[in-house]
Amino acid sequence: SGTSLEGASSCDMAFTHFKWEVSSNTDIIQYSEFELWNGDSQVSTAGAVATATDVRQDFGSNEGADKTIDSDWSTKACCWFNTIVFQYSAAVAPTKFRYVTGNDAPERDPVQWTLKAGNGGINWVTVHTQSSSASITTDRNVATQFFQVDMPQATLSPTPSPTVVNTLLRWTVSTNAVDGSTGEAETQLSE
């Protein structure tokens, strides 16, 4: 959580990438849709991309990772992967998520996982962990219950703090107006 500053407000940080790492004790995983929600509204998957990062057997376009965000509950991602990275076209701050079960084999449903968030797909922060087996419906092609997302908080200050300074400034001079050489005696910055 963020540092408290007088007159400051706190808000959820937003991220462009979410990584769902299923750690169920089965090698075969399947689900139809993965849905992030903010309150009562589902986060749009328009322009989003889903990529399985640990494919052990490729089932091709019929059951690929992209099926988890196609808004079609009759399609699914299956079978030999545990991790999918979802990249959204804009940063989002979900409050909850759920998934839709596949069309067959309830034993393939994810029951243990970690959901992580990040920007750029490099550095991740854990926003949900299901370490004990979740009770998932055995009904097929139906949405599971919602699971809470614990987004990190960012603290917004109404005015910049005088102790906060930019530590990097880059000034590039490509040429000067006289003879093409460059030189500098002193640079001053002011507010």
Mind explaining what this structure looks like?
0% of the residues lie in helices and 33% in strands. It is built from no helices and 13 strands. Strands 6-8-2-10-11 form a five-stranded antiparallel sheet, with no helix packed on it. It has a four-stranded antiparallel sheet with strand order 5-4-9-12, with no helix packed on it.
Low-confidence stretches: 1-8, 159-177
Instruction: Describe the global form.
Output: globular
Helix-residue proportion: under 10%
Could you give the distance between the termini? 31 Å
Please give the structural blueprint.
Layout (H helix, E strand, L loop, with lengths): L8 E4 L2 E8 L6 E3 L1 E6 L2 E2 L6 E4 L24 E3 L3 E10 L3 E5 L12 E6 L6 E6 L16 E2 L4 E4 L35
Antiparallel strand pairs: 1-13, 2-8, 2-10, 3-7, 4-5, 4-9, 6-8, 9-12, 10-11
Considering the chains and any ligands shown, give keywords for the structure.
191 residues; mainly beta; 4-stranded antiparallel sheet; 0% helix; 5-stranded antiparallel sheet; globular; disordered N terminus
Compact description:
This protein has 191 residues and is mainly beta.
